[in-house]
Amino acid sequence: MAAQTAKAPRKRPRQRRSQQTVAAILEATGRILVDEGYDKLNTNRVAEVAGVSIGSLYQYFPNKQALVLALAESHLGREIERLAGMTAELQELPLPQATRKCIRALFEAFTVDVELHRALVTDVVHLGEPLVYALQAKAELAVRLALERRRDEILPTDLDLAAFFLVSAVDSIVIRGLTLAGDRFSLETLEDEIYELVLRYLVGSAEPT
After folding, report:
1. Which of helix, strand or coil describes residue 66?
2. Total number of domains constituting the chain
3. Are 170 and 198 in contact (CB under 8 A)?
4. Per-residue confidence of the chain (209 residues) as pLDDT tens digits?
5. Least crowded by CB within 10 Å, which of 81, 117, 198, 208?
6. pTM
7. Closest CA to 101 of 109, 8, 183
8. Could you list the residue range(s) of the whole structural domain that residue 38 is in?
């Protein structure tokens, strides 16, 4: 329990100036994480890059783990909230169009800063924090709600398993495609293939395979 508390932010910024300070600290954390790696990240280096005193940093973050987790919560959380916010809109579209729109939204979210996304996913998992599982659960819930409303249109019957599969598969393929194979495939080709994968999983194919 003590170890978990030590990785939580000390306090939340409430005033505008404090919010700007925290934003600068988290931006610096992201830059160092991407450019220099998690092992080179430390509170002194973050304070230096952010242009704040170490005392100001320690008002909000007790250590580098707390910095990384706060950054992950902000960056990854925005992506998931965007997905969850699309649920009603997607429901109004035919399933193929809804699938395409959802995948495109994920691409747009990830490509804003794909290197930061990759680094955060890798390091948060490495830290063994429950945050990554909470974010995964939120994404799965959003997908499951969308599937529930289309239960009569899709093949999977275990919607919990289907949501887990879709979130995990799409996230893994997009991240690896953008970070490890970015010079091998165009984004359009990668998006098309993921679309085919998801749609075939959900409704099968009218064409023989």
Report:
1. helix
2. 2
3. yes
4. 334 445 656 666 667 888 899 999 999 999 999 999 998 999 999 999 999 999 999 999 999 989 998 898 888 777 777 777 777 777 788 899 988 888 887 777 777 777 887 787 777 776 766 777 777 888 888 888 888 989 999 999 999 999 999 988 888 887 777 767 667 878 788 889 999 999 999 999 644 34
5. 208
6. 0.70
7. 109
8. 2-65
